[in-house]
Write the structure tokens for this entry.
Amino acid sequence: MGMTAGQTQAFKAASGNVDPGIMGPVCEGVLFAVLFLWAAWSFVDVWQGWANQKVRSALMGRFVIKVIVLLLFALWMFGS
């Protein structure tokens, strides 16, 4: 459902004349950037723990599966 002309005008006035159609992809891009950066950071952290034998292999496998499911779910929900 699109915005009415009055809603579009109010949005542009409040946002400094930014088109509402641009904000959706920008917000999605920020979301995916944060998710992928978090996934990379946490994977490096778990990898270092696994390399130092402080994290079990089963935990490493569960972590990888959970991150992949989270990223796929986010891409499915927000990227389509």
Remarks:
- DSSP finds three helices and no strands in the chain.
- The radius of gyration is 19 Å.
- The helical segments are 5-15, 20-51, 57-78.
- The chain has a mean pLDDT of 92.
